[in-house]
Task: inverse folding
């Protein structure tokens, strides 16, 4: 079984392949430029991105959207995660959370079109933002919060973990495994 993944983010593509390939689903990159709304939930944004891919003629395709949420702020940054980080970086995140509760969570949604059917699957990973945020840190391409996010149940940031451990905590893995179960039922 093969599915197209409409993304231009190589880190997301690698993670999807790492999760789905062992489950018998080959992931092929489809680097479509998709408009990302700046309001709503990650699930709603994923559905809008999926509609764009379908309008371009793809009927076996998945898209994803994700965001990090800080407990100190109502639904923020959420769907604005990439835009906010690109503008304020680690320095701004550090300042934003000074004196605030550091609990946070990642939330992601994978929307899929499969032979006339459409579905959305979500996953969450709870944790906290590290007190150690250096303004000079270099973000990993496509996953800038891994150097500062500590998943619940661990004491290390995601970046300090080998890939199998990162996958254990991954919100995207949780959504992709639900997707894989659904695809197997669809045939």
Result:
């Amino acid at each position: 079984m093969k599915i197209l993944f409409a993304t231009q983010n190589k880190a997301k593509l690698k993670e999807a392949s790492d999760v789905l390939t062992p489950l018998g689903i080959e992931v092929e990159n489809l680097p479509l430029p998709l408009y990302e709304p700046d309001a709503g939930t990650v699930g709603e944004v994923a559905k809008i991105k999926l509609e764009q891919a379908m309008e371009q003629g793809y009927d076996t395709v998945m898209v994803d959207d994700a965001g990090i949420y800080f407990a100190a702020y109502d639904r923020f940054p959420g769907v604005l995660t990439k835009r906010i980080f690109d503008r304020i970086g680690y320095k701004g995140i550090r300042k934003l959370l000074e004196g605030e509760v550091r609990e946070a969570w990642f939330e992601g949604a994978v929307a899929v079109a499969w032979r006339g059917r459409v579905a959305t699957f979500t996953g969450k990973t709870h944790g906290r933002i590290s007190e150690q945020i250096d303004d000079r840190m270099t973000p990993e391409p496509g996953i800038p919060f891994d150097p500062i996010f500590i998943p619940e149940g661990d004491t290390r940031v995601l970046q300090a973990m080998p890939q199998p451990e990162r996958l254990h905590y991954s919100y995207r893995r949780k959504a992709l495994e639900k997707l894989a179960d659904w695809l197997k039922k669809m045939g």
Q: What stands out?
A: The chain has a mean pLDDT of 95.
